Amino acid sequence: MMVNRKRDESGVALLVVLLAITLLTITVVEFTYSTQVETRLARGTRNSLQAYYLARSGVNLAEAILIRDTQLSGAVDSELDIWAQPLPPLPLGDGTIMLRVQDEARFLNVNALAKEIGDSPDLNPERRAFTGIFSILGFDPRIRSALIDWLDPNDRPEKSPPGAEQPFYLGLQPPVAVRDDMIADLRELLGVRDMTPEILAKLSNFVTVVFDPDEKVPFRVNINTAPAEVLMALSPGLAGDPAAVQGLLTARAEQAFNGEGSLRERAPRAAAILEADDTTAGGTIWSDVLAYASTYFRIEAVGTVAGTSRGVTTVVRRSGSPAQVTRISWSPRVSQLALTTLPPSDFLEALPPLVGG
């Protein structure tokens, strides 16, 4: 009987040992898994932070390029300038930087509508331009009137065609407050009566938002960078003569216009039309609306580290002599994270020096 008892005790001890080993194994596996998860989370956080600061570095680089451009191109901005050239990814540290600079003056500024006008709105160049772009794109002109009422500071609805002021929006469920001022993001216009995401997406190819509280809102479109539709929206004469517009685009692709003289010399047909429009409209298109250089630029930068990407979008004002760049908006997002499909390359060697001659 003693032998059997010892065997039973040995069997129980073996079970206890096996159970202890099993529990320890489970604990070690759980601890190892938790450690791996925390390590991956920490690595992901580190990569995300590094990617964000790489994007910020890309913004700094773009600002330096804009400043250097004033030394190379003077008081002219065009798609031939260094800031407008496509830049391949820049390897830096453990990741890469992608960036893109775009001229905000190539588009119509929506915020130019956010101001009181006189008794002759048809003579207002901003109103005429937006009437033109809505006509070119085939949009309902009532949306244009509602857009003006959303931005202008008065409470009088547009009459032709009818617009929509605060009383209309108070009847919605839920009620909506009209801005009656400048906006900071184009997406806010989705609140405008009859505005749809599809219409806004098409409109965003020709309009922008420049919100600069420290400066007067400019409405000067750069003739060297504006798309054909914007040029035609500005000038009724150009809208009726596509060949003249094409001649202007061809001429500026070879060399940027630097003033009225070069425009008359290399795009005489378009120049004659603009002069005729100025006579008809009382001298507001050529002299007050068109420009040959730009003040505001949009910078989009993306940093990527180990497959993690973070982006930054900022609108900057370049002004003064010597040129200085001031950020007027900052957003931790970009319209798309793939700003280029070119292979990685240290393109800094191909750029002119940022200082010196």
Structural overview:
With 357 residues, this protein is of the alpha/beta class. The chain has a domain of 93 residues: Ribonucleotide Reductase Protein R1, domain 1 (Orthogonal Bundle). Helices cover 43% and strands 14% of the residues. Strands 1-2-7-8-9 form a 5-stranded antiparallel sheet. A hairpin with a 2-residue loop joins β1 and β2. α2 packs across α6 and α9 packs across α10. The longest helix is centred in the N-terminal third of the chain and has 72 residues. The chain is elongated and about 115 Å long. The C terminus is likely disordered.
CATH architecture of one domain: Orthogonal Bundle
The separation of the N and C termini measures 105 Å
* SSE pattern, N- to C-terminal: HEEEHHHHEEHHHHHEEEE
Q: Strands of the biggest beta sheet: in what spatial order?
A: 1-2-7-8-9
pLDDT average, as an integer? 85
Strand element count: 9
Q: Tell me, what is the CATH class of one domain?
A: Mainly Alpha
Q: What is the 3D form? A: elongated
